[in-house]
Sequence to fold (170 residues):
Amino acid sequence: MPGFGVAGFALVAAFILSGLWLDHVRERPVYERPAILIHPRFWIVFASIRWFLFLAGWGLSGVVFPRAALVLALALAAAWSWKRTLQGRRYRRRMIRQAFQREKARDPAATDIQILQRILHSMHPRWGEELIEQIAADNPTPEGVCDMILRIERGALPPGFNPGRMLRRR
Fold:
C-alpha cells in the first residue's frame, strides 16, 4: 500500500516537472521550440494530462499518506500564491517604481525615458532595442511601462482588437 502513496507523489512530481518544462520551452526563441507546440490540440491534451497527473497523484498519496498529502497541498498552494503575487500588477508596479527611483537618484541627468529603457532592458534583455524604445516612448511613466509589460507578458491583446476581423474577406 505505501507503494501507491509513493507513486502518487511521483505523479505530482511529474506534474511539477511538466510545468517546469513548459516554462523552459516558452523562454526559448520561437524558432527553437518544438513544432508540436503550434497545434491547439496539443495544448488541450497536454493540459488534460498534467491535471490528470496532479489529481491522480494527489488522490493516491492522500489515501495512503493523508498528512503528507495535506502538507504537499499547502506547499503547492503557497508556491502558487507566491508566483501569482510576483506576477501581479501591484508587485510589478512597486518593483518598477522603486527601480525607477533608484536609477533616477543614481543618474539625475538621464531623462525618464532613458531610465525606463534601462529598466526594460534589465527585465527583458531579449527584447529588441526598437521595442524597448517604443514602449518607453509610448508609456513615459513607470506605471504605464508596467501595464504594457504585463500585457505583453500575458499575451493580452489591446481592447477592441479582434484578429478575426483581419481574416474576414470583404
Summary: The chain has a mean pLDDT of 85.
